[in-house]
Design goal:
This protein is an alpha+beta fold. It is built from eight helices and 13 strands.
Length: 255
């Protein structure tokens, strides 16, 4: 059982929040990071391990960790949720589908079905959106929509006046063993970008996205709906940036 009070304290609220408030507080309190896979440590999805890492140790995590922790909190608050696996599309070369290595939630709460995702890192939803295709949703200036593409639903975001695919998914729940298999691939496969590269990101209270990554070149990105700035980073800056910008101490690029 999740220690709900400890989780709520971690995300900065002590009362019983509604779905949107809970989702937004989680996004703005728990950073996205792959520091364990980057240094060869497999990621456990056991709830006790997620709670220890993300709540008590005040670490972050990637999609499997983030959304499973959110799922446990939602269920402790009386909501129902299902696990869905998605294929990331952003940055995908044409004709080269990626494996289903992104986890999202379908949530039943407050008399409706919701698409919840606190684990997409730089570009994640701030709040849940109605499940399935529908109208454009604006969240603190960031714009999202879901469209149909054959059997898949695709989450898109507006960027530079165009719609960019983020990920596509079948609207069918998957068993936890499928999630465990996808997580094992993501955190251990020698060609997984979460094993070979570095990504740490966070959303500030004003909804500015901040990300440190070497997936293209080692850089720090800050982005608002109005634009972005990118600054090249030297390797010896990484540890300090991870500590000061993301609240994670004791990690350098090669930690």
């Amino acid at each position: 059982m999740l220690d709900l009070d400890a989780y709520l304290a971690r995300i900065g609220t002590s009362r019983r929040p509604g779905l949107s408030e809970l989702h937004r507080a989680h996004v703005m309190s728990i950073p996205f990071e792959n520091l364990d896979p980057r240094r060869g440590i497999p990621v456990s999805l056991e709830l006790a391990d997620l709670e220890r890492k993300l709540v008590r140790q005040r670490r972050g995590g990637y999609c499997f960790e983030q959304n499973l922790l959110l799922k446990a909190a939602l269920e402790a608050l009386g909501a129902e949720s299902e696990l869905l696996l998605a294929r990331v599309r952003v940055g995908r070369p044409p004709g080269s589908p990626r494996p289903r290595t992104h986890l999202i939630l379908r949530v039943r709460a407050e008399g409706a079905e919701w698409h919840a995702d606190v684990g997409f890192g730089h570009g994640t939803l701030l709040e849940p959106i109605p499940f399935g295709p529908g109208d454009v949703i604006e969240q603190s200036g960031w714009r999202f929509r879901v469209i149909e593409d054959g059997p898949e639903l695709v989450l898109q975001t507006a960027q530079n006046g165009e719609w960019l695919d983020l990920y596509g998914f079948l609207p069918e729940p998957v068993p936890f063993i499928d999630v465990e298999t996808s997580n094992w691939f993501t955190c251990t496969h020698p060609r997984s970008p979460f094993v070979t590269g570095l990504i740490v990101s966070a959303v500030r209270d004003d909804a500015t996205r901040v990300s440190l990554s070497d997936w293209d070149s080692l850089s720090l990105t800050e982005e608002t709906p109005a634009g972005r700035t990118v600054r090249a980073v030297e390797p010896d800056e990484v540890g300090e940036l991870i500590s000061t910008r993301f609240g994670l101490d004791g990690f350098g690029r090669d930690s």
